[in-house]
Amino acid sequence: xxxxxxxxxxxFDIGGVCVLSxxxxxxxxxxxxxxxxxxxxxxxxxxxPDGFWQRLERGEIRMDGDFFRGFxxxxxxxxxxxxxxxxxxxxxxxLKDVANPTQLDGHVSLKAExxxxxxxxxxxGAQQLPKPQDESPARPSLSKLAQDTTIGDPVSLESEDVAxxxxxxxxxxxxxxxxxxxxxxxxxxxxxxxxPPLPDIDGEALFWSMMxxxxxxxxxxFPALMQLRKLPTKERPILAALSNTVIFPSGHPYNRxxxxxxxxxxxxxxxxVASAEVGLRKPDPKxxxxxxxxxxxxxxxxxxxxxxAEDCVFLDDIGENLKxxxxxxxxxxxxxxGKTWRAVKELEQATGLSLMDERTRRSKx
Length: 365
Fold this sequence. Notes:
The chain is an alpha/beta fold. It has helices at 23-32, 39-46, 52-57, 65-74, 78-90, 142-148, 188-194, 203-213, 221-230, 275-278, 285-301, 319-327, 340-351, 358-364; strands at 9-12, 97-104, 107-114, 161-165, 171-175, 238-243, 271-274, 312-316, 331-334.
């Protein structure tokens, strides 16, 4: 039963929300190839806003040989490698966000994913969805990754605030430790002596391993999305996706536009705003405003009074993305790595709708 504050629209991020995060694939690649933990995420994040990954997400370059050569170069940046082994790796500060590439239907995105260090119950009782094939027997659990990973924000590591969602949809802000609390970088002599050689990373192989891992729907959020989709149009909010994306080459098997299926998240939305198609990336406020404009237009075409930002609930796994949404007036729900079922519970509170099956609900009570 709907509440008095029933939202007119729900906006979902894709990677780390509707589909699984490829964070495990990154960790597996680093472990298998003896690459220092967090280096890949650090390198990608520090090349923003004009690294090859970010340019790909804005649709400025194609996913071709030039992209992979540039991506490899970003992963072998000597200046960043020195910084990584200096202030970043020697710092005791645990960053709240971890880089997370995500993909959907010819699209992929690298973004931050929240790390919650509090212990949690075993993440069991997922709704009945096909489980992804285990590619590595030694792959760590999501909850452990969420506790152990210290990765930078690919949009801006300079941002010190991390937005947190609250049961009523509002958010609080946690101030990160200032740079004064971090130890001073080592002097040039000690850096030259102790600095190991840059890892030899196959950027193209890494990229596709991340894409393969993130093809599967999230076992909690995606079923909730499908539950919403099954409701009569007049009884549910408008469903929208707002995601940083890339476009796969024409004819690539990861393009699902010509083969839609129930397991394809893109087919579940009334409105889909993809960064690579509009030339804008989160957390730029312009892409949020564009999404609201599309929602407003659709609602009016259906005879409604229109949609404003304050009529929307937005689910994302990145604090900075949520902060922008909050600033525009949206209610927000943060989706936490390894605990995505919690976001479904918050969404139920926001809508007054039952979005979990009983088996899942009993396991999470």
